[in-house]
Specification:
about 900 residues; mainly alpha; 40 helices; about 60% helix; about 5% strand
Length: about 900
């Protein structure tokens, strides 16, 4: 029964499911019921009253580590080994209340600090609070100093470490590799698996209160949420009467949280597999397509736009965790021009010749690609019938799990796409429109997050910026967390203040603490040039680093430098402030200090960049060993930074440390397997090590990830394929190079030596005159040499002669002769013919080739069959060609070797 209760707690299920359980006061079920009712603070109070008769005494502890050690030892006294279940519930209640007080609001009505800690003076509370906040710092990055109730998160993390028996992450320096959790589907007990799950949630919470992911916490959280055994271990101990639908919900939130974790630790390129799995699990159908829409009040004719058609599975209840009457206020646009939302015409009304992509441009097998963040139906006939019949202006309400999938896909697209790209913004808008304007009740967290993201988009457009800023301000104030000044009247609706709907899906969406919302509003003000308002918000939030960066962004470096100087003078432990000050001053000593005090990885990255490209007035020269040393030390502390690995690999390539480069780029492609340049650079390292097969495999990945745009990748692909005698791939690379480079370099896109080798291979095979039994290589090679290459040749006689050889092999001598004529004309029209002897000699060579072609091909059977000739008057044409060239060269080249050769050729005809 206990496992079932904890499963409901993971899902934040409706508390009615516990109606038949033992809920006597003080029992675990009673505590879980309080948490599910949104009264985690009450559960904390119950446990504190029963177990903390002797409070935690940390008086005299002068720093954060002494404080942590004291709390850890006294927690061991309070909760014995037999009380792991109670300790787990207490840890969950602490985390839930911390989330409520800092992320969702409204603030909990009960404070337990005085009951938890032995305090004799008021000043001790301030000292303890400061030490607790410092203990949550990670590698020199301080936790937000105004965070509420840091003791809740600290105690929760310590208890979860103890229950899972994992090494502590509270340490001055967590050096080397941390032992990652190993979860077994059969060996790990369900309650321990539950504790692991909550530990991952607590670690992601800790990461959200520092400026950027760092340290070992991301590795541990990711390790927990990348093992499906986590859910297997829990479901194996559920009672038999538990439905498959309930188990499916556990797997669903697991995959959603896996995606949320990847987004939180900047490994967003790993999101797609989990998103694909959860989509299949919930049988969610959606597609991005085009539809005609009216967007303004005066628009008479609808124009093409993007729309998300989506429908939840018919067997999935759409009201999972929805609570009516509590959604945050959605401000109307109130525009004299724009409609509140686009008014779409019926999906089937768009003329076929005006759809997203015209049919003749598509392969016949084209359709929806499900393995994309946004599956796209390029034409109406590719939309599944279940979606094609939806009314685009009144689509069915989605289940909250499906809405979460759309939101997580939105966050992934934002992180993996260029900023301010109009097409990307249109895609994001279509996602948000589908979520916000659906009928039915909305969960507070999902709806407010959707409004927030819509506001971010709207503040980039002049016609919607007013609504966007007002909506952002409203959402910040609706949290109800210590807002000192309100611009918008406070809601009197008590339902709006319930913590229950706000906590329901908080663990499946990226964390956004209240100060991050406020600082995002400040950042938006700054981007609009409203510097004073932005600085006021940062100062109110006590964010000196952000305030300094705000000034630096608008060119006021002196103000930024002064703010940071004051910060490091008052707070000697803020490694981030030291590092940013070092960035402004370009002072290596400040970066070294930031590293010494907290192993702040950005300080090492700055040092590496400094010694890679030292300032001219420093007197230093580039030192690869020093650069690699700094980057290596940075990566030892935080190994999930794609950018640092990439720089590390590039430096190693540059100084010919190929093993290091191979390791670096291997890590890059494990973090982002769509990075074409990482694959290409990895192949370069393998080539230098003589590992051609591995290099070729990497280049295949690079080519498939590059959208066929980078000619350097294809050139390397061709070179390695030649060395491996993979001629089908050589041919493919040659074709791609011509397609990519033809507009800029014309015939320079043809690699003639490689084409000559392909030609030799082609003409060494037997030709099928009917062309019905040609091999793939023959067919593609003929098309490339006889169709593609002629379309880009301008002055290359050599290229035309290659085409001529293939045409002769195809038993088309008339076409071969025509190519020889074009080869001669390409050279003979050179304006340097009369002044450059080399050009003159090359033209004479081409003339001799053409004359020889006339002689050998002229009397062959022509294209019209028996009785026809290739060139009946070939002798006349040969003499005319020689005569014409001699007339051009008479004044300058009479008597030269080339002239004598022409005379000899004329005599022999």
């Amino acid at each position: 029964m206990e496992v079932l209760l904890h499963s409901h707690l993971l899902l934040a299920s409706n508390p009615e499911v516990l109606s038949g359980s033992d809920v006597s006061e003080g029992s675990n079920a009673a505590l879980i019921t309080k948490i599910l009712n949104g009264e985690s603070y009450s559960a904390i109070d119950s446990v504190v009253n029963s177990k903390f008769s002797q409070k935690i005494d940390i008086t005299g502890k002068t720093n954060s580590m002494q404080t942590i050690d004291a709390i850890r030892s006294q927690l061991s006294r309070i909760f014995t080994e037999d009380e792991a279940g109670l300790a787990l519930i207490f840890a969950i209640a602490l985390l839930q209340t911390f989330i409520q007080n800092n992320y969702t609001g409204p603030s909990a009505p009960i404070e337990s600090f005085d009951k938890l800690f032995e305090i004799t003076e008021d000043s001790e509370k301030t000292t303890i609070n400061k030490n607790l906040v410092q203990s949550l710092a990670i590698l020199g990055q301080p936790a937000y100093e105004l965070v509420d109730n840091p003791e809740y998160l600290v105690i929760s993390l310590l208890l979860l470490e103890r229950i899972t028996r994992e090494p502590t992450l509270f340490a001055h320096d967590v050096e080397g590799d941390v032992k990652l959790p190993e979860i077994s589907a059969t060996e790990t007990s369900a309650l321990v698996a539950v504790a692991y799950w909550w530990r991952s949630r607590a670690l992601l919470t800790q990461l959200s209160i520092i400026p950027e992911p760092s340290g070992k916490q991301p590795l541990v959280a990711s390790s927990i949420l990348s093992s499906i055994n986590l859910v297997h271990a829990i479901t194996k101990e559920l009672p038999q009467e538990v439905t498959d639908e309930f188990k499916k919900q556990l797997y669903t939130i697991y995959y959603l949280e896996n995606v949320k974790c990847s987004l939180a630790i900047n490994t967003e390129h790993l999101c797609l597999p989990s998103l694909t799995k959860v989509k299949k699990l919930t049988n969610f159908q959606f597609v991005l397509t085009g539809a005609r829409a009216k967007r303004t009040k005066f628009q008479q004719v609808a124009h093409a736009g993007l729309i998300i058609l989506a429908k939840s599975d018919a067997n999935t209840p759409v009201d999972q965790g929805s609570f009516s009457g509590n959604a945050p206020e959605s401000f109307e646009l109130n525009s004299d021009l724009l409609l509140e939302k686009p008014q779409f015409e019926s999906i089937g009304s768009e003329p076929l010749d005006e759809q997203i992509v015209k049919k003749q441009k598509l392969d016949q097998d084209a359709g929806i690609e499900d393995n994309k963040l946004l599956p796209v139906a390029l034409r109406q006939e590719y939309i599944p019938s279940e979606l094609h019949n939806l009314d685009p202006n009144d689509q069915p309400t989605l289940s909250n799990y499906d809405t979460l999938q759309l939101l997580l896909r939105l966050y992934t697209i934002k992180k993996t796409s260029p900023a301010k790209d109009p097409l990307v913004e249109e895609e994001l808008s279509s996602l948000l429109t589908r979520i916000i304007y659906q009928e039915g009740s909305n969960n507070w967290t999902i709806f407010s997050r959707s409004l927030w993201e819509r506001s971010i988009l709207e503040t980039t457009k002049a016609k919607t910026i007013e609504r966007g800023l007002l909506q952002m301000q409203s959402l910040v104030e609706e949290l109800g967390l210590k807002i000192q000044t309100r611009l918008i009247p406070e809601s009197q609706d008590n339902a709006n203040n319930s913590p229950l709907p706000r906590l329901k899906y908080i663990y499946q969406l990226p964390f956004m603490p209240r100060w991050e919302l406020d600082s995002s509003l400040a950042e938006k003000y700054m981007s609009l040039g409203i510097l004073k308002s932005a600085v006021e918000i940062y100062e109110r939030l006590h964010m000196p680093c952000e305030t300094a960066l705000c000034y630096a962004a608008v060119g006021q470096e002196k103000e930024a430098e002064q703010i940071l100087a004051d910060r490091v003078a008052s707070n000697h432990q803020d490694a981030r402030a030291f590092s940013i000050l070092g960035d402004i001053r370009q002072d290596p000593k400040l970066w070294e200090k930031a590293w010494e005090m907290g192993k702040y990885v950005n300080a090492k990255n700055s040092l590496a960049r400094y010694y890679y490209n030292p300032p001219k007035d420093s007197g230093l020269t580039r030192d690869y060993n020093v650069v690699l040393k700094h980057l290596n030390e940075s990566l030892r502390q935080y190994s999930l930074n794609f950018g640092t690995w990439y720089f590390y690999g590039c430096v190693a390539l540059e100084c010919e440390r190929m093993e290091v480069a191979a390791e670096a780029f291997s890590r890059c492609v494990s973090l982002d397997d769509t990075s074409a340049m990482s694959w290409s650079n990895l192949s370069a390292a393998y080539v230098q090590q003589g590992k051609l097969k591995e290099a070729f495999s990497c280049l295949k990945q690079a080519a498939s990830s590059d959208s066929q745009k980078n000619w350097r990748i294809w050139e390397n692909y061709m070179i390695v394929a030649v060395r491996l005698n993979e001629w089908d791939d050589v041919l493919l690379a040659c074709k791609q190079l011509v397609n990519i480079k033809r507009d800029k370099t014309g015939e320079g896109s043809i690699d003639l030596p490689v084409v000559e080798k392909l030609l030799e291979l082609l003409i060494s095979t037997n030709y099928d005159a009917e062309e019905t039994n040609l091999t793939y290589f023959q067919r593609q090679c003929i098309e490339f040499i006889c169709v593609t290459i002629p379309s880009v040749i301008t002055t290359s006689g050599r290229a035309w002669r290659l085409v001529a050889r293939v045409e002769l092999w195809r038993k088309r001598p008339w076409a071969s002769l025509e190519c020889h004529e074009k080869a001669y004309r390409a050279v003979a029209h050179n304006p340097d013919l009369e002044i450059n002897e080399k050009v003159w000699n090359d033209t004479v060579d081409a003339c001799e080739d053409l004359v020889a072609a006339y002689e050998s091909l002229g009397e062959m059977e022509g294209k019209y069959g028996p009785g026809s000739l290739v060139c009946k008057d070939w002798k006349y044409k040969a003499r005319s060609t020689i005569k014409s060239l001699m007339s051009k060269g008479k004044n300058n080249w009479d008597g030269s070797d080339g002239w004598e050769r022409l005379l000899e050729a004329r005599r022999q005809i």
